[in-house]
Amino acid sequence: MALKKRFLKSKPICKVTFVIAENTGIQAAVVGDFNGWDAQLGTLKKFKNGNFKGVFDICVGKSYEFRYVVDGVYSNEPEADFDIWNDHAAAKNSVLVV
């Protein structure tokens, strides 16, 4: 898995690239505070090499909890800024700081 941030100079936006590498899953998404935990808004595209990838515009000046969902199974991003316990999910969530 990978996470890449590209801050725009002209807008208070960060283009964040989320990648799930070499996965055998059929469908994947990134869900989090930045998209209302809506998998349809966080759909990742699958490539021939097995990677899932998506680029999203995220407002800067905040931190966001998020997770990946691959075929209904949740997982965290090892390269996230940090992880935090979430009582609602009864699990740790990855955190993105932009």
From TrEMBL:
<dbReference type="InterPro" id="IPR014756">
    <property type="entry name" value="Ig_E-set"/>
</dbReference>
<dbReference type="InterPro" id="IPR013783">
    <property type="entry name" value="Ig-like_fold"/>
</dbReference>
<protein>
    <submittedName>
        <fullName>Glycoside hydrolase</fullName>
    </submittedName>
</protein>
<dbReference type="GO" id="GO:0016787">
    <property type="term" value="F:hydrolase activity"/>
</dbReference>
<keyword id="KW-0378">Hydrolase</keyword>
